[in-house]
Structure formats: C-alpha cells, structure tokens
Amino acid sequence: MSQVTRRELFPGVWLRAVHTSKFKSSYLSATLLAPLDRRTAGANALIPEVLRRGTAVHPDMESLSAALDELYGGAVEPAVRKRGETQCVGFAASFLDDAYALKGEKILEPAAGLLGELLLKPYTQGGHFCPDYTAGEKANLIDRIRAQINDKRTYAVQRLAQEMCRYEAFGVDKLGDEEGVAAITPESLWERYQALLREAQVEVYYCGSAHPDRVAEALKSALAALPVNEGRVDPVCDVRVSAGPEPIVVEESMDVSQGKLALGFRTGGQSCWEEDYPALYLAAAVFGGTTLSKLFMNVREKLSLCYYASATLEKMKGLVLVSSGIEFDKYQTAKDEILAQLEAVKRGEVEDWELEGSRRTLIGACRSTLDDQGRQEEYWLGQAAAGLEEPPEEFAARLEGVTREQVAAAAQKLELDTVYFLKGKEG
Fold this sequence. Notes:
The protein is an alpha+beta fold. It has helices spanning 41-51, 61-70, 108-120, 131-147, 152-164, 178-182, 186-199, 212-222, 277-289, 294-302, 331-346, 352-368, 373-386, 392-400, 404-412, and strands spanning 3-10, 13-19, 25-35, 75-83, 86-96, 124-125, 128-129, 201-208, 248-254, 259-266, 308-314, 319-326, 415-424.
C-alpha cells in the first residue's frame, strides 16, 4: 500500500510524496504553475529546455549526462504541460530507488540536488542565459510549434479549442506561438525566468521508498535558493457557464485526404469542483470516451460515418471536445449523427452494457494509475492545479455510485458552442 502526503516546504512550494515500495525506480518532478497567458507562454515553455542544456556546475549536456550516469543512469527531462488554464513547466526525473542501490548508498539526495541545480543554478554568460543555448532551443521550440500541424487529428482539436476559447486563456497553446518565441532574447528570457521563480506556485512530487520526512529534507535543501514569496500566484480557471446563442462554425481548407470534424460543447458550468462531477465524467465516457461509447459503436462501427470518433472532457475548463475523421461529403450527416447520439444520452437511452462497460473502463483506468509512476505524477499534478486532494481510488469509488439518471442529467447541460471542420482544397 502507498501512503500519500502533502506538505508546504516554503511559502507556495508544495511537496506531494507517495511513499511506496512498489517500484524499483524513484520518480521526482519539480513544476512551476503559472497562469496561461499569450504574452508569456512561449518564454515559459522555452525556460526548462534552456535550463536542461547546462548548469553552473555542469555547463553542458555532456557533463550533465555524466552526473546522471553516476546516479545509475538516471534521467531528467524538461516538461511543459497544460492543466485547465494553468501552464505547468519544469522537470521530471527518474532514477534507481535507494532500496536497490548496489552498495546501499543514498541516491535520493544527489538526485534531488541535481534537480534543484537544473532549476536554480543555470549556466549563464554575461549575467543572463547563454545566447547559443537560447538560440538553439528557440529554433527547436519553433520547429515543435510548426510540427503540430502534421498530426491533423490533434491539430483539429487544438484549432477547435483556439476558436472556442478565443478570448479565454484556454485558447492559448502550451508552447506559445511562433511570433512570440521568435522575439525572445537571452535577456528577456532571463527576466521571465526570474519572475517565474519568484511568482509561480511550485509543485514538487516524489514517488518511491524513502520516508516522506527524508524526502522533505532533501528537497528543502535542493530548493533552498528559491526566492521567498508569501504571495505566490495560485492559478485559477475561468469556467464559462453557457454557449452563445448560435454555435460558431469555422471551416478551413488544407491539402488533406480526410476531413476532420471537431465539435466543442460547454458543460453548463459543470467541472471537477462540482459534487456531481463523476456523473459528468461518466456521461462524457458513455457519449464518446471509450470503445463501448455511442460515438464509437454507432457513428464509427455501425454507420461507418467516421474513421474515428471520440470525446474528451476538460475537467477544469468545463468542455467536452469531440474529435472525428470523415469523408468530406459526410460533414452534415456525421455532425447530425454525433448530435443525435448526445441527445440519446440526454434522454437516458443508455443500455446497461453501455453504462457498465464505460464505468468499468473508467474505474480500471483510475486503479491502473497506481501502477505507473508517470501517470500517478500526471494525476497529482492535475489535482494540484485544480486545488483538489481526492486520490484515484476514492474517485473510482464515487464513480461506482453514479446512476443512469445522473448521467442523463449531466448530459442535458451540454450545449454545442463551436464546430471546426478541416476539409480538402477544392479541385
């Protein structure tokens, strides 16, 4: 059994420790949580990439790799994530658990020290970031932003979110935009980095066999150079209650062989903070969240209207986003059928096997989270961003009690807000 604790190391700097002997490796992450903002998103995303290039002690990738090799070949990678309207940037590290060290040596302390070094003691030139490292990582980040268009399935949902939340922070890409990144200088990036260290809420995560008190001491020492700030920003998420009077329709043309139809629904203010959130979660799954869902079984399998069709729930933002791949001439038919399947859920026309199959899939996913260190860290980061403490097994227990009527009631609040259609170029 694992024991999960959370404590404040410094003002606005929190440690979540999962004490368990289940794994041979330990998992450690340090994440800065900042409000997602078009003006700072690109610089925030760039910072961990530049930091990973070298520190004051290990000034290049080669010496950093040597330091990791000494920790039995540990790994540490930059991480840029988005949770609701919070941009989460930092590092995730994995290294051999102390219990398996060949000579009984301590690995936690030097690993925590290296993580703190990466975050707080960067390699600098002239009092700011190294121009070469900055230029190289800027080019890489711009390449990543441009490359997003290559996966048309993901791109369509991204464009849907941008159009649907054009005047909301959720519409901002976690990597920022090309123009913003191109304008960054080593000096402006340094200023942004200092502001982030000063202002952002910090979430530190550990999963392994070390006692939480020892973990706290190791990380307090590793992060001692963080600026002290009693007023670190606790990011919030703006949940819009209703859609506009008419759905927004956005069509774009590209040289594609398959159309991408994405539909965005507002949940009527329902989000992870509401008491009936498990019903919304299950309603989204019955609609399009599993291979037993109405979208998969009917729109894709039975009617063959889509190459794929699924729905995902943005739990903090209160959105359900539907993603589908269709023939260009099936636009209206596919759209009508997707909406018809939602209407069926709203009316409570859900077979026992649909309801129970979706419920078992979701509960299985919750429980399997406990068997994967990376997924556990993702889960607890999401909870931290939302200010929630419920562990996966407790949420699974709440899912057990959701009725068909509650699923229908949650679905009834869904309103179509935006339609995005990516079609081929004419002639």
